[in-house]
Amino acid sequence: MLRTMRETMPTNLGFAILGLLHQVPQSGYDLRKVFASTALGNYSSSPGAIYPALRRLEEKGLVRGREDRSTSLRPRKLYRPTAAGSKIFRGWLRKEIERDDVSRGVDALMLRFAFHSVLEDQGASHRFLVDLAREIEAYLEELDSQKKIFPEQAPIQSRLALDAGIEQYRALVRWARGALEHFKEDV
Amino acid sequence: MLRTMRETMPTNLGFAILGLLHQVPQSGYDLRKVFASTALGNYSSSPGAIYPALRRLEEKGLVRGREDRSTSLRPRKLYRPTAAGSKIFRGWLRKEIERDDVSRGVDALMLRFAFHSVLEDQGASHRFLVDLAREIEAYLEELDSQKKIFPEQAPIQSRLALDAGIEQYRALVRWARGALEHFKEDV
DNA sequence: TCGCACATGTAACGTGTTACATGATTCA
DNA sequence: TGAATCATGTAACACGTTACATGTGCGA
To answer: Could you tell me the distance in Å between the CA of residue B53 and the C1' of nucleotide D9?
Structure first.
């Protein structure tokens, strides 16, 4: 019997989990602590998010969990990525940067870059930064032209809010250019 | 018969709509065009988001829609904020900036500031910017100490990703300090 | 024995996404 | 008549949020 199974991609939270599991096998509880205590904290550390996300990853065959009784505490379930999980994750890391990725907030993009070490490929990181700078600058031109079109009588606060966004993007371009120095370009 | 009605706050999308309706009464279709064509575009312009959001606002008594047959086209429903809607909206604009507002992404904060003109209160905008800079700087210290704690052997990409966030926040502080000049402080 | 830290989960709910359906009017 | 544009909506679905429930072993 053929099952059609949508096999949708994991969400950002799913990929974040997958990335952390690439560093070291962990339990849901461990992951919650990571999300609660680090800059990844914009992702939820609540059990109602983590455990279902782990289960979905397992159902898709991207991670596998097994009981760990080595401690004397209540047995934990240690998860680690499967081969399929690793493949999907690497594909996600290498995905082309599109305009939408930039205009809908760079968070997901930075999450990807943060886990780029998994690739062990300096060229990939280099390309990522080059592409990121290029896409942001294209988007900046869009924002600039929006600023010009902005009606004169538009409230100062709206115009300033647009400026805030522009300045943040500019800072990101500078950052990307600087970060480039850390990676060798492919020949 | 007493109805207990949760009366939850609108979402960001709801507040964005409420703000746009404060500028000029509009139909769902108009709003979709605004979201599709401006920097507010990170909010959805899909009918499946806008129309339900409008209905929810109406159910809560925050906006009221009425048919407009002035055009020869299919009649549109023009929405405008009610007195209650205006009150809620102004309360939202004036809400204290909390640490979480900063660490969970500044988008909602900037949305608020963009609509600050509704208040017609320079002091409020001034305070907003001062508070924003203060909270961001506090959060920056948190990020800085996280950077120090960061294990030496942590992948360069992770450290750089953290830097990217830091640089964006710094840019925002600079922006806030500059924007301050446009508003008179209360005495 | 009581409470706490460790550890895993579930149920109800709200909302955004995608895709589809429909209605009204104009113009070729 | 058919296509295009204006305009409003719904249904199925996935996911995160909040709040609650449960289990295990340790130390006071």
So the answer is: 12
How far apart are alpha carbons A29 and A52 in whole angstroms?
13
- φ and ψ at B134, to 5 degrees? -60, -50
Cα–Cα distance between B184 and B186 in angstroms, integer?
7
Angle between helix axes A12-23 and A83-94 (nearest 10 degrees) is: 120
D10 C1': nearest CA residue:
B48
Enumerate the nucleotides of strand C whose atoms come under 7 Å of any protein CB.
6-12, 14-21, 23-26
Sequence-ordered list of residues with C-beta below 8 angstroms from that of B117, at least 6 positions apart, any chain: A155, A156, A157, A158
Nearest CA in chain B to A180: B160
Question: In the predicted model, what is the mean pLDDT of chain A?
Answer: 93
Q: Is A75 left (phi over 0), alpha (psi -120 to 50) or beta?
A: beta
In single-letter form, the type of residue at position A160 comes to L
Distance between CA atoms of B114 and A73, rounded to whole angstroms?
52
Per-residue confidence at A2, pLDDT binned at 50, 70, 90? very low
User: Residue B88: pLDDT above 50?
Assistant: yes
A82 in Cβ contact with A64 (< 8 Å)? yes
| A36 close contact with B: CB closer than 8 A | no
Give the Cα separation of A113 and A119 in Å (integer). Answer: 10
Best probe of the B interface among A150, A157, A170, by most B CBs < 10 A, is A157
A-chain CB neighbours of B168 within 8 Å are 168, 171-172, 175
- The answer to whether the Cβ–Cβ distance between A117 and B175 falls below 8 Å is no
Is the CB of A167 less than 8 angstroms away from the CB of B155?
A: no
What is the rounded radius of gyration, in angstroms, for the C-alpha atoms of chain A?
20
Cβ pairs bridging A and B (under 8 Å)? 101
What confidence score (pLDDT) does residue A3 get?
A: 39
What angle is formed at CA A163 by the lines to CA B167 and CA B125, rounded to 5 degrees?
100
